[in-house]
TrEMBL record:
GO terms for cellular component: cytosol. InterPro entries: CTU2, Rossmann-like_a/b/a_fold. It holds the Pfam family CTU2. This is Cytoplasmic tRNA 2-thiolation protein 2. Coiled coil: none annotated. Plays a central role in 2-thiolation of mcm(5)S(2)U at tRNA wobble positions of tRNA(Lys), tRNA(Glu) and tRNA(Gln). May act by forming a heterodimer with NCS6 that ligates sulfur from thiocarboxylated URM1 onto the uridine of tRNAs at wobble position. Prior mcm(5) tRNA modification by the elongator complex is required for 2-thiolation. May also be involved in protein urmylation. Keywords: Cytoplasm, tRNA processing. GO terms for biological process: protein urmylation; tRNA wobble position uridine thiolation. GO terms for molecular function: nucleotidyltransferase activity; sulfurtransferase activity; tRNA binding. Belongs to the CTU2/NCS2 family.
Amino acid sequence: MHAAGPEPSGAARLCLRCKEQNALYEIRSEPACGACFAAFVRVKVAKRFEVVDRESRSKVGRGTAHYLIGLSLGPSSSAMVNIFDELDERSAKKRRPVSSSFRVVHVDTSLLDPLSPRPSRWLSHWKATYPRFTFETVPLTDALSLASIDWPSLPSLNSDLPPEARLRDLFGRLPSSTSRADVTRVFVRHILMSTAAAHRCCALLLGNNTTSLAALTLTETAKGRGFSLPWLTNDGARDVAVSHPGQNQEEAETISQIVHFPLRELYRKELVTYAGLVEMDKDKDLGIYGYERSSGSVVSHKDQSIDDVMARYFEDIELSFPSVVANVVRTAAKLSSGEPRQPCGLCGADIDLHGDQTWKGEMGDEDTTSAPSLASAQAGHRLCYGCDRSING
């Protein structure tokens, strides 16, 4: 189902942009043909990316500007790969002195769901479809070796187990489906940021759209991470600890990594429609999931995470009240992080100590911190309130 897709048959209307083709789609209530709709989406992305690209080109001189695209195999990040392939092709034809190089990285989380197919079966087809890009699959277990995660602040892991078993053991001890979804998302973000920093990429390009950013805003607020919203949802530089082989966490190099959301001004329904226009939804070998909206009826919320609930809510809201969704994102974008503070050992966002204590007091769990967590905090390894709840319940 394409939320912004073809209108019901009836009296044919001309596209208000080209005034030549029949208008089978709508661009923010404006009748448009498929070609103009696709052009609208590409222009939106190009204009947002222009600022980052200009800054990158000024840094690299006449060299190559490297970018990393995070690919989840959802419709938004998949459409983003197609859009940047189109933009890169047009840029190459202009023969500019500064070239761009795109590395597309998918984090394999299939170890958490044994029944899900390995993404390697899809990535070979992605490589053939977009030969200008470099594709890479990174296992979720790579999070275990990241210097950007303060492992002493988390529950101890059995070092005798192989990496996959070690990670399964950690997730098996988490208290809820929301905790598992939360920690998975945090690990994926860490891996993408560390990979971008290790490859000295000018920017990490994430596929969050207006709808998913609105859902993320309310999700993180509900989890007690409202203080970290500027760090999680805004464009800008983030400090990333990157260690080299043979180095321990204390010797890690801190790199400033730009994070950018090129799809920030596009709704999910618009990107689903775009993917249909370029026929990505018909190419089953790409392994893209999530084109169809979830059924409105939910039998049980027991196994649903807060992330799932908020995603469903904003997917529904964007159909009738898109301005409400956009206002959530615009309001969050006005927030600033203030002075740097001690980072959370898990998510990496600055910890608001006063806010954390307020949250704990209002929730009535001031004294629920476990003994290992308390000892870890006293040693300088701290978690924000949201991460503490995800790990310890």
